[in-house]
Structures are given as C-alpha cells and as structure tokens.
Amino acid sequence: MIRNEQSVTRFRRFRHALASMGFWSCMATMVVGQSSSESTPSSKLLEAIKSGKFGVNSLLRYERADQDAFGGGLDPRESNAVTLRTRLGYTTGSLYHFKGMLEFEDVTILGNENNFNQAGLNPAAADRTVVADPETTEVNQAWIAYENYDTIAKFGRQVIVLDNSRFVGDVIWRQNQQTYDAVSLKNTGLLSDTSLFYSYIFNVNRILGDEHRFGDFESESHVFNGSYSGFEYGKLTAYSYLLDLKNSPANSSATYGGSFVGSAPVAKDLSVDYRAEYAYQEDYGNNPIGYDADYYHLSLGGKYKKVNAGVGFEVLGSEAGRKGFVTPLATLHKFNGWGDAFLSTPADGLEDLYFWVGGTLPGNVPVRAIYHDFSAQESGRDYGHEIDLIATRSFGKHFKALIKYALYEEGRDGRAGRNILWVQGNVMF
User: Fold this and answer.
1) 3-state secondary structure string across 350-394
2) Rounded distance, CA 209 to CA 211, Å?
3) Is 262 in contact with 234 (CB distance < 8 Å)?
4) Given 120, 160, 386, 426, which residue has the most CB atoms within 10 angstroms?
5) Better-predicted residue by pLDDT, 327 or 28
6) Cα(383)–Cα(397) distance, rounded to whole angstroms?
C-alpha cells in the first residue's frame, strides 16, 4: 500500500512538471482536435474514430413451416423456429480517404433447438421441415475502403447487392446474411450518369454458417456490372458474372445479360413501372456439364394513389431438359415464391407467371398479395402454384413489424407442397 501511494505521488509530481511546461495542455487540445488551426495526423485519426457510427440491428422471428412428403418419403413434422438475430457494427469516419467497418452477427435460438431442422445441422430434428436459420456467431463484415475521385475501392468481407439481387445478393431475408470475401471497385464519375462495378470474389459466406458443409463457396469469380441512368424513364444495365465455384462445380457459370427498368407517369395519381431483362448463360470454370440456357424477365405494373397491381413473367431456361439456368449467389427467397420451392432451377427449366395486387390499409399498413403459376420451360409440365401474402407496419424510424404467409400447392413433378408463416419484429439503430 505504501509503495502504491509513493508511486501515485511521484506520478502526480511528474504530471505537474509536465503541465508547467505546457505539455499537458497540448495533449488535451490534441485529443479534442483544437491544438492549432493545422490538424495533426493523430488528431485526424481521433476525429475519424469520433465521427464513426455504431449500428445495431436486431430481429426477433417466429417461423412455422409445414412441408408435405417429398419424393414418396415420410411427411416431415412441422417446425416452429424462434430465433433472434443481432448485428453490431462500427464504421469509422474518413481518414485520408480511407475508412473501415467491423460488424459481428449472432443468431440465437430461443427455446428448444430441436423444434426445427437447422438445415441438417441438428440430427435430432432431421424429421422436421427445414428452416435455414442455424445458430451461429461470426464476423459478418470486416473491410477497409478507399474513396476518392468518384471511386470506392473496398477489400475484405463485405455485402454485395447488384440490381434486384437476382444474380448477386445478400439473401437478406434469412437471419444469417450472405457476405463476400472480395476486392471490389465502384466508379460513378467516369462518364455522366453511369455506375461501373467490378469485384473479384474469393469466398462466399453463405447463410448456412461455417459448420455446414456447404456453408461457403470457394470462389475464383469475376463480377462486372455497369448501368446508365441518363434516360428520363428508366435505367439501362449490362452485366457479366463469371462464377467459378470450386466446391460447387455444378453452379460454375458465365452469365451475360442486360435490363431496362423504370417507371413513368401516365396521369394524375397514376403511374406505370416496367422491367425487361434478358441473359444468356453457359458452363464456366470447373463445371462438368456443358450447357447453355436463356433467362427472360418481363413485368408491367401500375400504381393509382395507394393501390398497385401488375403482372410478370420470368423464365429460367434449360439445356434440353438436362441442366437448368443457375443463380447460386442470388437472394433466391425474393423470386419464384416465398415458399422456396424453387431454390434450385429444375433440370427442365422454370416458367413463373405471376400477378400481384397491393395497397395501404388504414393505420399506414402496406399489404400485398402475389399469385404464382409455375411450369417447366422445356416440357410445359405443371409445377404447381403459390399464394403469398404480406403486411408490414413501421413504428417510427427504428422499429418495424411484419407478418407473412406462403402456401405452395405442388404440381405434377412430385415437388413437396408447403405452408409457412412468419411473424417478426425488427429494431434498428
């Protein structure tokens, strides 16, 4: 105790001597960035840290999933999944045009972990319907970026979402977000009204988590995307996605395509929106199957005041019934029905004719209903139909509630029918 008191006394004396020489005041002004009109590197570093932003995103979800027997097997038991996903991240301010981000993600199961099938990770629930939200804790994002001359260069684990996520997305619906270990480059100033993007992806961190055998795609992939938004009523996009997935060779593919997407006013309170897209795909990298297939997506919708409706037709083609068009990096839940009956394209290809109607109920509650009619692109065989319903409600800037339902009725290919209900609340800061 005496030795500690003596040490404290000596430190106080030393501090007093430094203060008398002005050292202490200089340190204080450096910390608050006011030492002089000329900033020092250390003060700029402190300012970059102080001007950074913390982010918290927490989502509590209940999912009830009930799937029929598939391929003549036994009927899986119903799954009831209650999961809490939390993301905690920090993004620095800019320092000499550099900035960085670190974000952690945790998915926790509330209740009995065997109440649902965690994509095969819990054998005790192997007889239940799959809910692809396994329990996991991981680094979701960790990147450093340089931003200057209308260009952002980014290295590390990052989110990449291109266009409508049909080919490259973050699978944002599932609790564990899909991210990419990649180098990316985006420029918005080379030409007027253009955006140019390139990324070399060397690993894909998928939604199934690190413990799943297909939790990652080992990748040597090149992604190109360019768009021009100078038209009055739409944006023109061209892309090339060269995916070489070492541990999933059947998904290695080269896709070349383009789209025109936009909206236009027709009359007071009335507008139309539209999409026209085409892509061509062939085998690439280590894919053992030689094939080529086409992709089409046409949609037309209208909005009058708070009511909207429309029709769309999406086709994922096939190579003579041997191999269907693949989209392994897509946010698949967003397309071809929320029941996720077509997470992989059938070998016979897929045609999805869909209709939607939506509006806003009293209390500012947006609702939407979608009907899908599925068939094989190659043979025309009936693949069933689906009805999707959703209602959301925001409470201020930080909280959002959602209820959603999907009912898929199987067709003549033996694909399992299913019905799924989601109820969730999301808090964001």
Assistant:
1) EEEEEEEEEEEECCCEEEEEEEEEEECCCCCCEEEEEEEEEEEEE
2) 6
3) yes
4) 386
5) 327
6) 41
- Please check the confidence at residue 414 and state whether its pLDDT lies above 80: no
d(C-alpha 332, C-alpha 215), whole Å: 16
Torsion angle of C-alpha atoms 200, 205, 211, 214, degrees rounded to 10: -70
CATH of 56-428, one of 3.30.565.10, 3.30.70.240, 3.40.440.10, 2.40.160.10: 2.40.160.10
Burial class (CB in 10 A: 0-12, 13-18, 19+), 208: buried
Residue 133 has pLDDT above 90, yes or no: yes
∠ CA 180-340-122, nearest 5°, is 75
Give the residue among 375, 262, 357, 224 at the shortest CA–CA distance from 313: 375
Whole-prediction pTM:
0.88
CB 372, CB 337: distance < 8 Å: yes
**In which band, very low, low, confident or very high, does the pLDDT at 97 lie, cut at 50, 70 and 90?**
very high
Domain range list for the chain: 56-428
Distance from C-alpha of 325 to C-alpha of 317, rounded to nearest angstrom: 6
Dist CA 41 CA 37 (whole Å)? 13
Name the burial class of residue 9, with classes exposed (0-12), middle (13-18) and buried (19+) by CB atoms within 10 angstroms of its CB. exposed
- Residue 422 amino acid letter: W
